[in-house]
Amino acid sequence: MQNHLLQILALFAMETPVSLDAEDIRNEKVKVLRSMRPIQMEDVVIGQYKSHTKGGVTHPGYTDDKTVPKDSLTPTFAAAALFIDNARWDGVPFLMKAGKALHTRRAEIRVQFRHVPGNLYNRNTGCDLDKATNELVIRVQPDEAIYLKINNKVPGLGMRLDRSNLNLLYSARYSKEIPDAYERLLLDAIEGERRLFIRSDELDAAWSLFTPLLKEIEEKKRIPEYYPYGSRGPVGAHYLAAKHKVQWGDMSLDQ
């Protein structure tokens, strides 16, 4: 979370740079990180996966590993709500989660749009948050894609709404092979291109967010919430999302 996900967040939330020069881009990323509110313990959920049997196959828990102490409190999952105190993002929660032994492996950004006040279609959509919220999804991996999930009218004489995706799947749109992430980084390193690399002040700003939190978790010996191997993570993560009136994107059927 401190490294890859925070970099994605900074790239997404930054203002338009003066140019595409590496220093201009990194300047804007640092501004975002420095504007972020200190992470509060009540906005964080940590977890650890436990053994789970599914389809006759038993998957071991984290502490079942011979190299891991049986009383280990090491988290294998974390979810957090972050806030950026600037004019553009004031009051907007950024929910971030990462974990091992989850039901699927993916890296993506999901932008859930706010509900329209006095929605005329409430009778058709009810109070189902997943149905009533349009969502922009930027999938980093696997199967790179950008798609917009919208609620549209079903053709016909009636008035019924349905969920559809306006989809740009890169592998379907472009026949050429998409370079692996580390291929791109290695090429940038060879060519001296620094746009995707972290500057020292950016690294300091990132660790200044997470270091106090990590220290507090360690000092208080906070016990992680257990979740089954292959699940969507601890139940507490869903309560965290509900607290901020959003829903994790991987909870929807069409995702």
Automatic annotation (TrEMBL):
Protein family according to the UniProt entry: Belongs to the glucose-6-phosphate dehydrogenase family.
A GO cellular component entry from the record: chloroplast stroma
Residues in Glucose-6-phosphate dehydrogenase C-terminal domain copies: 1-248
Secretion signal, residue range per the UniProt entry: 1-22
Pfam entry (one): G6PD_C
InterPro entries: G6P_DH (IPR001282), G6P_DH_C (IPR022675)
Record lineage: Eukaryota, Viridiplantae, Streptophyta, Embryophyta, Tracheophyta
One BP annotation, GO: pentose-phosphate shunt, oxidative branch
Transmembrane segment boundaries: none
UniProt keyword annotation of Signal present: yes
Name the UniProt record assigns to this protein: Glucose-6-phosphate dehydrogenase C-terminal domain-containing protein
GO molecular function: glucose-6-phosphate dehydrogenase activity; NADP binding
Swiss-Prot/TrEMBL keywords: Carbohydrate metabolism, Glucose metabolism, NADP, Signal
